[in-house]
Amino acid sequence: MATTEIYRYLTIEKKTYALDPEGYLVDMGDWSPEVAEALAHEEGIVLTAEHWEILQVLRDFYVRYEMAPAMRPLVKAVGQALGPAKGRSIHLMRLFPGSPAKVAARLAGLPKPTHCL
Amino acid sequence: MLLHVVNRSPATSRVYQQALAGMAPEDRLLLIEDGVQGALPQLVRYYAGLEGRLFALKEDLESRGLLGHCDASVQVVDVDGFVTLTEEAERTVSWY
Amino acid sequence: MQEHHDDCDLLLILRHGPHGSSWLREGLDAALVAAAFGRRVSLLFMGEGVTALMQGQQVGPLGQKGTAATLEMLEMYDIDTLLVDEQGLSCLGLSSDELMLEVECLSPSALARVLSGHRLVLTF
């Protein structure tokens, strides 16, 4: 869950964006592709077309369900949107190493997924 | 056999109806906290059909001054008895 | 279908409607957490809880989020055993074809069977 607590700022070309203690955007409205790239850079990820299509799935998920998905529903949503070859946790692990549901939600400008620890 | 636990009085709450709806013929019902009011002769009719399977917690009756007022059809158990009921049941379901 | 609700791990009984309290949201949260960890979850909407399934729900008067979007999300968490207490519906003069999701209606006698058919039952 995104908190309203501002912990630090992300700066892109003199513009600042408030981040919560876990690095999620405090204001979802701040999100832009440039912000996503800067957040990805912090994770050591260079966004490719394969990343972007996952971020879009996540943003669509949020619009529809008002929540960021945990890993299992993320895998399912990716499978539905992009086909079974990509709807696999290994694909997401490769693109967003560590904890894909959390990392990808952060880059997509969503709050932290509520239902994964 | 499940143990159902109700902590509301049938005089003020309809939760007892949900508990009854969820009870199988062999299930037991234990009244605790304000639920022990249901053990009074005037209110025990809400639990008609549970003869032999209706229990009330002694400590909660005692603290409310109701211990001597229970209907004869209600079996009074203390906390140890509560534990035994829990052990004898496959699971406990709380209705509150 | 092999995975009938009798084989499920967890039954969550939802007895409160949206907006009036946080019980419904907390019950749904518990369901989502359990499902995210791979448990088979069934939901039983009982009593007033059946109103969680009304069509056309909105945000609250102060803009509070509702729970309808979360209910629509259940399928993404593979929570597809949705049971409704027939009496709860008829008490409110509602019928199951007016609800926002496909549900299985339970007669009073079926309710008790569902409760004993799950390894864990939590009431919200």
Automatic annotation (TrEMBL), chain A:
Similarity comment: Belongs to the dsrC/tusE family.
NCBIfam families assigned: dsrC_tusE_dsvC
A Pfam family it matches: DsrC
Domain of life: Bacteria
Keyword Cytoplasm carried by entry: yes
Annotated localization: Cytoplasm
EC number: 2.8.1.-
Function, as annotated: Part of a sulfur-relay system.
Keywords linked to the UniProt accession: Cytoplasm, Transferase
Native source organism of the sequence: Halomonas rhizosphaerae
Protein name: Sulfurtransferase
UniProtKB/TrEMBL annotation, chain B:
SUPFAM superfamilies (UniProt xref): DsrEFH-like
Pfam families on file: DsrH
Name of the protein in question: Sulfurtransferase complex subunit TusB
Organism the protein comes from: Halomonas rhizosphaerae
Gene: tusB
UniProtKB/TrEMBL annotation, chain C:
SUPFAM superfamilies on file: DsrEFH-like
InterPro entries linked: DsrEFH-like, Sulphur_relay_DsrE/F-like, Sulphur_relay_TusC/DsrF
Bilayer-spanning residue ranges: none
Pfam families for this protein: DsrE
Membership in a protein family: Belongs to the DsrF/TusC family.
Name of the protein this chain belongs to: Sulfurtransferase complex subunit TusC
Organism ancestry: Bacteria, Pseudomonadati, Pseudomonadota, Gammaproteobacteria, Oceanospirillales
Designated gene of the protein: tusC
